[in-house]
Amino acid sequence: MASFIGLxxxxxxxxxxxxxxxxxxxxxxxxxQPPVRRRLVLPLKCSSSGPSQDTESEAETTSSAPxxxxxxxxxxxxxxxxxxxxxxxxxxxxxxxxxxxxxxxAFCPLGGGSCGDVLNSDYAVVxxxxxxxxxxxxxxxxxxxxLQLSARSLPFGISESSGRFLLxxxxxxxxxxxxxxxxxxxxxxxxxxxxxxxxxxxxSFSLFFISIKDVGLQEIQKVVGxxxxxxxxxxxxxxxxxxxxxxxxxxxxxxxxPYFTTEITTESSPFAFSLARHLHSIGAKMxxxxxxxxxxxxxxxxxxxxxxxxxxxxxxxxxxxxGTKMVKACADANIEGFPTWVINGQVxxxxxxxxxxxxxxxFNE
Length: 365
Known about the structure:
Structural class: alpha+beta
Shape: elongated
Largest sheet: 4 strands, mixed
Radius of gyration: 43 Å
Number of strands: 11
Distance between the termini: 150 Å
């Protein structure tokens, strides 16, 4: 004789099958034994038909582990990209900073020497600080932050969330500055190509979009006002810097003047010829500009033949336009006006009479 007993557990349905012991398996056995009051303990053999709570917890942990690993790998990949692009910008700005500080000419792979006009203009300086040096600091911060975020090791107790927003703020300022510089390039240097400027803009915009992807649009919506303020502040500072450091007078601010030569029409007197030869022998130099009328008048005083003997330095040999700087020789001499004479270490500004030049230079006829 057998029966089935159903037991309910807290987790799942448990079915227990209960079997009678062999010694009470027949009715005949009870008739042979005197009636004795006994306690019957039935052994139960139970098997569970549903999973336990621990099994379900382990399954949930196992399923969530791949998701966490995938998210971590994606974040590391983003930071590695930021660090790589930042390192490229770091190399570029280091090279340009060296050129700026050493007054060397840049190698322009595209556009010929036109990129030098941009890199040597007043727009390449912000509040007296070379622009490549500012970019060097920016790319350095991006590279360092990206590497530290990838390693989950930020300094000064900065949390990972704060580090991500700091990276976003840095790339936002760089992207805003690059957008402003592209505007300057298109409006002030029309027809000029600057491969270094375009490369830096591409790197800045790429870093900005990578930072947006890392933070996420939902998080960015919470700080979009701060991002707009950062971009506006950067553009306002650049505008203020360039409005206070004009390289040319305001009356000439929009002039784009190609280089030209002017013929000397006067004849040289014996005195002018001898004075010119004397000035050349002592290393006297005359600094001027092709568009300067006073420079032309100074040469007319010497005459056609004598003026050819003068050590004349043209400060704008490639033409004159907005943002163009003087050549290195004129910049080193701190030329502030034209013409300027440098005779035996003495600087004389303006158009001078021949007798005055003879007296200053120690010329005796």
